Every structure is written in structure tokens, then in C-alpha cells.
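ok trying this again, last paste got cut off
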Amino acid sequence: MQGLKENKYQFALLVLVNAFVGAMIGLERSIMPGFGNVEFGLSANAALMSFIIAFGISKSLSNYAVSQLSKKFNRKTILIIGWLFALPVPFMLMYAPNWNWVIAANILLGINQGLAWSSTVIMKIDLVGGKNRGLAMGINEFAGYLSVGLAAWLASSIAADYGYAYFPFIPGILFAFGGLLLTIFLVKDTTHFVQTESLTSKFPLFENVWKETSWKHQNLGSVSLNGLVNNLNDGVVWGLLPMLLIQRGFSITQIGIIAAIYPAVWGISQLFTGKLGDTHCKKQIITAGMLVQAIAILVIALASTLPFLILASILLGLGTALVYPNFLSVIAEGTHPKQRAQSLSIFRLWRDSGYVIGAILSGFLADIFGISQALYIVSAITAIAGMIANHRMCCTTKTFWKSDYCVPTY
């Protein structure tokens, strides 16, 4: 039987597994640009962003691969495969003789994140059904991104005491093996829930899931665009923020605090913003979230003191929390159960392509115009995407403004 209460133990276990998934990427959030600069002598922003490009390409393609793998393997098997790709990553980073090893490690990390995070999202949606889907996504993303923030803080603390090389990546060994062992011995597959839900679903089957999810459907297509822009600005902040703060004379510890606050606020806030999407209009929530992100990025570009940068990090985390679980809920509630895994995978392909586009765009813009100017442009792009969502999407639940209610076309 579907339901959060009815499946609370398996749900909680998947939340823990996703925390390990988030911690794997969190180790890189605060130290990787400094690692490349100090240990390998990289100075050009475009070169430093290469690890995010490698990560983004492999993660986005791996997200899409889940939809194809789902035709041959069950959810649990895909999750195990995802963890197997994570096992070499900390060792490659610890013993990297050159930057190419770091790029290779990030390719494997992207595969891990794509397969493992997608699987935990889909499995939670399988478990809870429609009633608390937003809350479930909020809890899932809370666990993942809170652990990203905590791992970012941990890595920066280790780097401050022992340097960027070797030691900050040791916790990754525990995260990778812990996630794999939990999955093998305790996680149960959820594929059978889809069969049951399909019998009662009133949603039509799409003739072309790719077109509907990517651009044609007014809600799904808008979410795919905004997901791409969201991760575009996330990749920019991931790669350029530490370098900007180094230029402005902040210490490794201060950089770690600023870099950790953003995903921590992002994670914690999703406990509330996910549930908010169950009862109120996701269109309005997504629009507000994108505009808050745009303001936060603008503050980062302008701020030169720690309090303002902390405020910007909080705003960026809050804005991202407003959109992230509701992106997933829009996709899940707008597709037939049999096509849900495919639609979610396509959305996540577009969303994580934002890392690649953001890294390439901001790296070159930062080298040509400077980091602050690159952030101004990214802030404007984020605001425009939010306004597109406001113009195009429909509200399917209670609205803050009644005039925004409409029924999306299928």
C-alpha cells in the first residue's frame, strides 16, 4: 500500500541513503577551486570550471540513462550500480597526480549522482503516492542538500588544518561504502508500487514523453527550463564563489562557512517548501524562488563583507528550496505512473545540463569580464526564467492569487 506513514521505515532508509549521496558531492563544494589552484597551479576560471563541466555532462546523461535502465532493471539494482561508480572517486581525488585525474573522478561522481539520486527520488515517489508527494520530495532534498552543506563545511575545515590535498577526501570512503552497504542489505525495491498505481491513474499516456517534458507541455516544459537555469546558477556559484572570495581576501574557513550555508539552508527549508507545494500553487512558488535566487546572486556580486555574503547565501538557499522539490512534484503529478520514471529522467537531464552550460558560460565570462560581471549576467538569466514560468505555467492546487488558477492541457 502506498503512503508515507505506511512505508515510513523504507522511506526513512532511503532518506539516509540520499544523505550519503549528497555528502559525496558536498566534499567538493567548498574546496575544489582552491584545490585546483593550489595543488595544480590552475589560474584561469575556464580551466578551473572544467571539473564541473565533466560532472555535469556525466550526471545529466546518467539521469537520462535511468529511464532506459528502468526497462531492464528494478529500482534497487540501478541504485546499487550508482554506488559502485562512487567507490573509486575518493581514492582518485586523494592520489590525483594531475588535474585530468580530478576530471575523471568527477565523471564517475556524476554517474553516481545521476543514478543514485534519481533512483532515490523515484523510489520515494513510488512509496508515498499522490497525497504527500511534495512533502516526500522536500524530505528527500532536505537530506541530500543538508548533507551537501555539512560535507562542504567538513572538507573546508579539514583543508584549513591539513591543506587541500589528500585529507579532505578521506570521508568520501565512508560515504561511498556506507551508501552501498545500506542499499544492498536493507533497501527494498519499489517497482511493484507502480503497477498498482497505474490501475487507478487518470492521467493519459503521452505519445512523446521527450517532447512533452522538454518543452511542449506548459507545466513540464517550463519546469525543465527553470531546472536548467537553476543548476546553471548553482554551477556558477559552486565554481566561481570560492574564487571570488579568495580574490577578496577571505580565509578558507570563511569560504567554507559561506559555501556550506547555502546548501544547508536549501536542505532544511525544503521540509517546509515541499509541503507548501502540496497545498498551494507550484507556479507561484517556483516563480518566487527563481526571483529570490536572482537577488541573492546579485548580492554576492556586490557584497564585500562577511555578513552580507552570509545573507546572500541564506537567500540563495531559500530561493533554491522553493523551487527544487516543486520541480519534481510538478513532473510527478503531471505524468502517468508508467511514464513517470522516464519523464523525471528527462527533466533531470535538462536540469543537470545547467551545470555544463553554467560552467562554460561563466568560466569564459569571468575570464573576459571578471567574476562580478559574470554573476550579474547569471542573475538576469535566473530572473527571466522565473518570469517565463509565471507567464506559462498553470496552477493545479490552491493559489495565493485566484486569477492564476487554470487547468494545464494534456
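PB: full thing came through this time. The CA atoms of residues 281 and 399 lie 5 Å apart.
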